[in-house]
Each structure stands twice: as structure tokens, then as C-alpha cells.
Amino acid sequence: MYEPEFLREAQRQLGVCNACRYCEGFCAVFPALELRAEVASGDLTYLANLCHDCRDCYTACMFTPPHEFAVNIPKVLSEARVRTYEHYSRPRGAGLFRRSVAGTAVISLGGVAAVCLLIATFMGPGVLTATHRGPGAFYAVAPWLAIIVPASAIVLYGVWVAVAGAVEFAHDIRGGAAPARPTAAASRPAMVWRAALDAVTLRFLKGGGAGCYYPRERGSSQRRILHHCVAGGFLLALVSTTIAAIEQDFLGRMPPYPLLSLPVIFGTMGGVLLIVGTTGLVTLKARADTAPSSTVMTAMDYAFLVLLDLVAVTGMLLLVLRETRLMAPLLVVHLGLLTGLFITAPYGKFIHFVYRYLALAQRAGEELREADQGAGAGG
Amino acid sequence: MAALRTKGQPPLDADVIVAGGGNAALCAAIEAALWGARVLLLERAPEHLRGGNSRHTRNIRYLHDERTAYVTGPYPREEFLDDLLRVGGSATNTPLAEMTIEESRRVPEWMARQGVRWQPSLRGTLHLSRTNLFFLGGGKALVNTYYDRVLRLGVTVCYDAAVTGFEDHGPAGCAVLAEVAGVRRTIPCRALIAAAGGFEANLEWLARYWGDAARRFLIRGTPYNDGTLLAALLERGAQPVGDPKGFHALAIDARSPQFDGGIVTRVDSLPFGIVVNTDGRRFYDEGEDIWPKRYAIWGGLVAAQPGQTAYSVFDAKSWGRFIPPAYPPFRAETIPALAAQLDLNREQFLATVEAFNRAVLAVRRIDMSRLDGSATSGVAPPKTNWASRLDTPPFFAFPVRPGITFTYLGVTVDAQMRIITTSGAAMPHVYAAGECMSGNILLRGYLGGFGLTIGNVSGRIAGREAAAHALGGEAAGRPVEVGHVRA
User: Fold this and answer.
1) C-alpha torsion B440→B446→B452→B455, nearest 10
2) Are residues A25 and B58, on separate chains, in Cβ contact within 8 Å?
3) CA triplet A28, A31, A36: central angle to 5 degrees?
4) Of A53, A342, B442, B463, which has the fewest CB atoms closer than 10 Å, so is most exposed?
5) What is the ipTM score, two decimals?
């Protein structure tokens, strides 16, 4: 999956790291590297997706350009991640990864246009300018079935792409070997649980206590906190949607819901966190040193963050302005952007959590087995 | 005071000027600033190469009474001093060595207060895990933390700023002659701290003692340690200390860059097989003593070989048993095929391998964790431990050349780190810290992580004393304490 030249260059740089080992305390990448005398293609995929891009190693490295060793691990690993995402997508090598900004913009605007056109055609242009109030107001603009059927199709498609890629990825990062036999300490549930904790706490974005050299110069927790906002906001929005579905389908209460109802409370918390998180991450990224990053990955980051931010902003505006005539146009834009978000999800930065989690699970297994072999036996 | 950054010109004057930009210089600058002085730090390197040889360090040796989360056991005073005397023969200035060891007890606390973080000893460094504390991310991370700290303390930092000399203005103080981003400047100050390292990067200076061979020496650290300030101090009458010809060197990969290759060029395979010179002959007992305590002798040994080049040759039994260097080894399925890749006398090399293999009597797996007594018989020089036949393909070789870590020549100091002249008097305004005074403590040999200890302790003392001198003596005569006047 890697061009031979790219693989050789990554191997060369990681060879310097393996001879040095000073960065061992920052994250999981370097201890994992040290277990591999030679870095095969699957090992590179594993290490690249284990990397959280904190840049502590780049800041601490004596051999970054212009040194002739020209070591730039965050950059080479993020370039490898782009190749990973492409390789494990369906269709394989989906070109959208390399045209994130244009692709995401076109698909999202297309989503808005499509929603607008469909509503105007089937519901009549009048619904777009009228004021809608009371239970079922949203469905007066976009009928429930017309939302739920395409949305489910898009989400299911995305899940299929992600699962198919995940299965193949998990096989490859083991070097094609069968899963390591569970030991007393490294049982499957223990690995899954430990990896989940590592993922949820963003343990490897802490730089072993030094924080993350992001945007630059000084260790900081900003990026980790903002990422928590985005992930938490996204989950709260999901919770809100789930509760709303229960209220509607089982309790027979139609949206919009009152301000003090559970869907609105969760949705508002989620929306605010998403806006704070995505806006913050975009701001940090704009200030960050570009030397240790891949331009393709950076574009992917921007495309995803900005789209997610817009979805959250239109969602919040919808809450504030739902009693006014602006509700219908806002709903069109919100639904259109959501369509874009979920269509592009398997082909953009969103997908990173799947491979990151699988890499963390592999690493958790390695850590647990090392602990199992006993501290005394080390050396 | 606005901190001047890259390529900035320095202010018109300062209380204390620190010449240098590594560990000792930064410790001195921090301490002088904490004691209230207006400090100017002149770093010879550009910003991205700042930090001198400290960039390449990874741990610091210190006195401690018990194990912690980061060291595996106590390291008492007697053992520390024994270790020092064993490698160095004797200290030039025993009270200074003892004071440094005693003072090292407070080093971790002081460093942590500046923002330095720790990590457990790195894999493959078991021999240092009890005595030395590893800082998170290694030397460049350490240096970054210290620069961040000095800037926050209001120290002015100038990069591309070489100190070429100084003038003594009597009781008024002195002036530092510097070249800042190509512009010659004379900057008045009340005290100067020389912390600009040794002269190991000055191949012409090395050639004075080593002749043509010096051209083939590799320098493991910064290209900026050319000894300009050291030469100026000696010329101004500083009492030299340490063997001018002396340097600490390892055998490192011959393909390394001329400068700044750092730790990754180190070749750890030497005791696993044989070491031959370009004549194809072995020249020293590869199994002489506990590795890694003895691996520092190989720099000097290789420096004495023709072309200052040798080859470490080993077989598949040893591959994977040491940390691999950054360069791949030469590799072949047979010894003659390996020889064909090496630039040496092939017939003699084949004969050497054959003779060595015949001299290995017992065929057993060598045990590198101790002197295992697996010795050759009837070959000169013998290999007295870890002798194992080169018989399992593939066969490997690393080319090695001397890689110089630092030079021993320095200036004599007193307990306040004032520089002592040949007449026995102290220079009135000039202090020294770090590598350029370490010869007062370590005459030869080396203890891993002790250079940083010397730099930290001497830097802090020099910083405090220079500040006291510059500000009129408020801090003079106090015991060596961690200063936090305005932290």
C-alpha cells in the first residue's frame, strides 16, 4: 500500500528513532517501535495510526531538518495515515481523501441544494418561506420518512465502509498473523477496556506529562481539551437524537421539544461543546507550525472541523430561531450539511477514530503482555 | 525587558553576560536572573541548533539515598566518589569534586522547579537506571524547557552570537567582545560567565596534537564548540587544567556526519564479535571488561589505527542483541562476501577470522550480562570474554571511526567558579561553568550523565556568584542553595 520509496524513507527515519529512543516517554509510538527490529508495511500502518500528532517528539528531536538525518516523525506518520485511510476505504483508494476541502465543500453544498430542491419539488416552495410552529413543525418542511430513509442509508453505508476497513486493518497491523493468544493479563476484555480508556482520556496526547507542543513552542493541554469538547459534543448530540427518537416513536411526542426537555438540553450541551471544540481546534491549527504536518492531512482536518462546526452552528440557530420564518431555510441548510457530513465521514478525518482505536487495542495487548512477563524479567 | 529572539541585536549592557547556550550556561542564566541580575545570554548557534552538546544528553547522575519512581535504588556518596576516582584516576581538585557530588543531591528538585520532567530509564540503559535520572524527551527537550524558563525570567537571549573575547575595565567591570549575526559588538557588563564548552569541534586545534589523523575524527556533538572563548581565556592568563591532547571518544559509525551525529551513531556491537583494522588484523581484546564501562576506550584505540578506521564484525547470533545504530550494517551470507564489501586487506581479514574461530574452544552462547569467561586460546590479542565463533550466517559489519564527545582541556576555577590565573589570583569578573571547567573534577575517563551534573552545579554557583558580584555582593558568602528570590 506504500510506494517503495515512501516506505524506505519512513523506515530510515524510524531507524534513527530506534537507535535513539529519547522519546520513549512521550507516547506509545516509540515503545511499540522498539519491539520491532525491522518496520514492515503493516508495522508502519500500526505506528502511524498510534500517533496522536502531539509533536513532542519533533520538538525534542536533535535530528529534525536541516540536520542531515532529516527526521520528522509527525510528518512521515501523518503522510502514512493518509495512505492508510485511502487503502482501507471502499472503494479502495477513494480520491476524496486527497481533495478534502473541495470535495467536502461540493458534497455539502450539493447536500443543501438537494434537500432544498426535493422540498421545493415535493412540498412546494411555499413551505420554505412560511412560519411553522407547534408539534411536527419540522416535518411540515421535511417529512419524517424523507429524512429517516436517506439518513439511515447514508449512515449504514458509512458503517459498512468503516467495518470492512477495520477488519482488514486489524489483520494487517498484526503483520497478517492470527490475533495473539490472550494471556492472563492480556485477555481480550482487558485489551478492549484499556484501549477504550486510552482513547477516551487521550492518554497519548499528554506527552508523558509534558503536554502537547501544539500549536507550538510550549507544552499545553489545549488541544486535548478541545478534542474532548468535540468528541463529547458529538456524543451528546447523538444522545439527544436517540432520546428524541424515543420520545417520538414510543411516547408519541413530536418535535420541536420544549427548552427544558431532555433532547434540547443534551442537544444544546452537545452543540455548544462542538462549536467551542471545532472552532478552537481550527484556531490552533491555523497557528500551528506546518513543518511537522502533511498538507493532505491538514486539509482533511480543516474540511472536517469546519463542516462539523457549521452543522453545530446551524443546529443551534435552528433552536434559537425555530419559532420564526427562518426555521425552514435553516432546517434545509442543517439537513443538507448533515448529509454532507455523513456522506464524507468514511472519506475524511472522521474515520481516524476507527484505526486509532484498533492501533490502541494492539498496543494495549503489547503493554499488558509486557507487564505479564514481569518487571523483573526486563532487560 | 523585551526578549530579543533570533538574529536580534543585544541590549547596550547587562549585569551578567553568559557566553554559551547549553546546560551550564542556561543553569547559570536562570540562577543569575533569580538572584536579580539583568542577564544577557549569547548563544553561538542559530536558534534551531541551540543548546550545545546538551542537545544530545539524556540523563543526569546524582546523589540519592533511596529508590524513586525513576531510579531503581540508592546511589550513596562513597560509591559516587569511588566511581569518579575509578574512571578519572584522581580528581584535580578533590574538595570541588566532593562538593559537586554533595550538591548533586539537590539537582532534581532544582530542575523540576524549572519545569523539567522525568521518565523511567530508557530501554537498553539498565546500567544507568539506578544512578542516573532520565529527563523526558532527552537533551533537546531539556534545553527547550530551560530556554522557555530563561525567557520567562526576563533573560535576553541572542542567537548567532559568538563571544570572541573580553576586556577588563578594572573595578567598573568588564566588556564582552562579541560577533552577533555578523556584527562586531562590545557589550559592557559587570560579570562574564564562560560556559561555551571545549574545543572538540575545532579540527585544526585537534590537529596540533593529532596531526593528519584529526581530519578523520568525527565530532559527536555541536559544530560550534570551537574553543574560541577557551583560547581567549588561556591567552589572558587562565591556568589551564586537563590534558590538552585528551578527549573522550567512542567508536562510532564511520558513515556518520562530521558533526552532530549524536547518540544514534554509536556502535554497540563491538564486544559481540571481533574488531579489525583496515589491514584486516585484530588489535585489541574485544572482551576485556564489563561493557559498557569499557566501550569508551574504543575511540582512542581506533584513532591509533591506520586511516582511523576499523570494522566491527559479528554474525547472526548477535544480531538483535544490542540497540541497532541508525545506519544499516554491511551484510553477507559468507565471510568472503562480507569482506568484498569492506575496504580492508581481504586475505589478511579472512586469515584473521579463521585464526580467531580456531582459537574459540568452547562453543556456547555468550552471556553479555557478566564477564562470562568464554575466552580464546592461542591467538593474539586474545578475546578474554564473550568469545564465540563467527560461524552463523548472515555475517555483519559496521565500519567505525573515532567519535569525539568532548575535550578535557579547560580553565582552573575556585569554589565560587572564579577563573584562576597562572599567578594564582582569581580573575576579577570572569566565571566558568560546564565543560570548560570540568577538568577541575574529571581528569580523564567519563561517567555517564556526570557532565550534566558538573554543568548544573557549576552553572548555578557561577550564576549566583556572578549576580552577587554584579549587584554588589548581597548574595556573596551564602551556602550553595537553590535560589528563588523572585521565582
Assistant:
1) 10
2) no
3) 120
4) A342
5) 0.91
